[in-house]
Predict the structure of GNAT family N-acetyltransferase.
Amino acid sequence: MIRYLRHHQLDKAQWDACIEASEEGVLCALSWYLDIVSPGWHALVEEENGRYLTVMPLPGSSKMGFSRLGPSYYCQQLGIMSVKPGGADAVAAAFLAETTRHFRFIHNYKFVTENTQALLQLRPQYQLQPRHTRYLLLDKPYAELYRGYNRDRKMNLKRAKRAGLVIAESEDIEPMISFFKEHVEHKVVGGVAEPTYQMLRDIFAKMREHRMGQLFYSSIDGKLNAGCLFANYKGTVSYTFNAADEVGRVTNGRTLMLDEVIRQYASSGFTFDFESPAIEQIDQFYASFGAKQVQYLALHQNKLPLPVRLIRDLRMKLYRALKPNRGVAEEE
């Protein structure tokens, strides 16, 4: 039986045990991560004798008196996660029916890539839009992975080394946040609220506590110029956050750090998830490392009353008209 549970009803020990044992489990679905990025999150849970068999986190909110479901910061994919063989295939239809029943407005709720096959057959009934990320399978020695880089990436990697960039691991996330505030935040319509940066600080602190993250900086003559944060969970390394100043961008600091992490995990059998955004130039930057497109699906639904829908549509048109062209956030 599938139950809709509010935050106070959840057994977080059972929840995390299910995420850990499931094939689909991702770091941002762990209870401590959800507590940071979506305090008070709800969930759908299939349980048997008190054991959670299948779960689906619901980072919802309420606005204008209507329940809303959507993505959380620093969390590309959520979705259905199960310890049952073929669990998602068996319950996907029931989970989507429950989700759409509880939330009148759903915007861009993104399912893990492992859910894609189970959800494709449900596209005629639901607004499931295709998206993709970039994966690089780290199952070969570094030399073979390097051969998969395109010509420009190899050239820019050589430039980074000639520029005298030095890479070091760090436990201080503040320089990277400062890079973002100074060089990226002004490109975001409406800016970025301070609580969003605090989320990142809290996530990084928990990653360090659980030994699930690595933070690297590149520098020249001791001056930092770019930072990259990577998460490590259940055989996947994820490119969680990055930022650079003008020197770091021009000297290809992030290219050098990405290459270093690929080198460290070569032949491990891990998957590198670039968490590619829907920005073509950034996606092509990730593709230059030999990373392949992997599809996932995002759920949408708008059953808000007509006047509310019209107001929202007008606001979205205004947002798109004002939204600047962000260009390339990574090195080219």
